[in-house]
Structure formats: C-alpha cells, structure tokens
C-alpha cells in the first residue's frame, strides 16, 4: 500500500557538480532526490536556497523532496513552487502557523510534508495529520549528515503508523538521518516507506550498487 522510495540526499554529494550528481542519482533508479535547505538559524549549518533548486530542476526529472530546515518556512512556499519542488517538508518547530503553512504548500501545487525533530513529541503533529501527504520523522538531530541513527525514534514511527491506521489517514512516512544497510530494515518494520540516505550512499564510488544494498537490506 505504501511503496518503498529511496531518497538519496544531495547534501552528501559534490556541490560543485550538481548536474552530474543528479544524473548519477537518476541512474540508480531512486524514486526521489532529497534536498536539504539550511538557513544557519533553525540549524547551525547553511546549505543553499530556492535559486539553486531552480538550477537543479533544469538538469533533472527526479522528484524533488525538499526538506527546509529554515525559520518561518512559509516565507518560501512560492519560491520553492516556482523552483520546481515537488514535495516541501517543513518543521513544526520552525513556525507558529504550521497548519496554515501546510495549506499554503498544497495551494501552491506541491505535496505538503511535515517533520519533527528527535526531541519533539508526536503529539505536535496530530492537528495536521489529515492535511499532509508525507510525515518525516527525523532519526538524527537536523543540521549535518553523517550522524548516528537514534533507535528510540523507531517507536515514534510505529506510533505514527498506528495513528494513521486508526484514523484512516493516508500519507507516506519518511525517515532521515543515519539510514544505512543496518538501520533501514528496522525503520521499514516500524512503518516507514521513504528512506533518505546521504553519507552511506555517497561514500561509495558505485552509487548504483550502494542503492541496491539498501533495497537488498529491506528484503533480508
Ligand atoms: C540532516 C539532513 C539529512 C542528511 C542525512 O540534517 O536532514 O537529510 O543529509 O545524512 P545522513 O544520511 O548522512 O545521516
Ligand atoms: Zn533532510
């Protein structure tokens, strides 16, 4: 019912060669490319903004799964829609108006996705679960790639899947942070179906083979 989607994170790619990196990701058969937007305020790190995403769009037909780690992300809904983002994910911790911001994303023609940090309880999502196309459960604290998976987040994923079933909602469950061939299966068993992976995938020379190890781990 919820097909597996692999979302290589371009945060771990070569920033000077986005066009060829996007091509490499496309060749793996990955369903999405995960694009991390960081403003240096919501998280300490700075990455890039909507103009860079618009340039990427010219080089790729992949589904752009944009994860905004940005204060007051509602300010950027139109910019990301125009840049060609397909999914816009925003943090409940980053705005006083999460409900309105998600409505704005949908009205702009994108899929609306909401995310919580490891320290934020699942309850913060309950009022918007009927609105969203995707929920992202962070499995590391956002800001940097290459951090260790936080196993306690699996309970959150499982509880979310249970609520979805009980209420008859329909949305994908995505996990982001520390996903590799040793953690992906447990995340899937808890109920996730969209898997972001950065450092694990890009540390390998052969991206196609490395993505295949994730799919194989799911089938083990
Ligand atoms: C972290 C980002 C992630 C990051 C994951 O703040 O949201 O998308 O790219 O990187 P890995 O897979 O290395 O944990
Ligand atoms: Zn991310």
UniProtKB/TrEMBL annotation:
Task: Report the superkingdom from the record.
Answer: Bacteria
Q: Which residues form the active site?
A: 36 (proton acceptor), 176 (proton donor)
Matches recorded under Pfam families: Ribul_P_3_epim (PF00834)
Q: Which keywords describe this protein according to UniProt?
A: Carbohydrate metabolism, Cobalt, Isomerase, Manganese, Metal-binding, Zinc
**Transmembrane stretches, by residue range?**
none
Q: What class of enzyme is it?
A: isomerase
Family from the record: Belongs to the ribulose-phosphate 3-epimerase family.
**What is the protein name for this chain?**
Ribulose-phosphate 3-epimerase
What taxonomic classification does the UniProt entry list for its organism?
A: Bacteria, Bacillati, Bacillota, Bacilli, Lactobacillales
């Amino acid at each position: 019912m919820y097909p597996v989607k692999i979302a290589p994170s371009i945060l771990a790619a070569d920033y000077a060669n986005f066009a060829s990196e996007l091509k490499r990701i496309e060749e793996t058969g990955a369903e999405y490319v995960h694009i991390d937007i960081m403003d240096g305020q919501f998280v300490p790190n700075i990455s890039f903004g909507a103009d860079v995403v618009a340039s990427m769009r010219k080089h790729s037909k992949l589904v752009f799964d944009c994860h905004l780690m940005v204060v007051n992300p509602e300010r950027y809904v139109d910019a990301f829609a125009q840049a060609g983002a397909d999914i816009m994910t925003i943090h409940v911790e980053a705005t006083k108006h999460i409900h309105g911001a998600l409505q704005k994303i949908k009205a702009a023609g994108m899929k609306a996705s909401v995310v919580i940090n490891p320290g934020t309880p699942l309850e913060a999502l309950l009022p918007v679960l009927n609105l969203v196309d995707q929920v992202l459960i962070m499995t590391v604290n956002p800001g940097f790639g290459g951090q260790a998976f936080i196993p306690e987040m699996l309970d959150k994923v499982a509880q979310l899947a249970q609520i979805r079933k009980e209420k008859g909602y329909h949305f994908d469950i995505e996990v982001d942070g520390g996903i590799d061939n040793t953690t992906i299966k447990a995340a899937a068993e808890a109920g996730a179906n969209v898997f972001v992976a950065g450092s694990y995938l890009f540390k390998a020379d052969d991206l196609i083979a490395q993505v295949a190890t994730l799919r194989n781990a799911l089938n083990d």
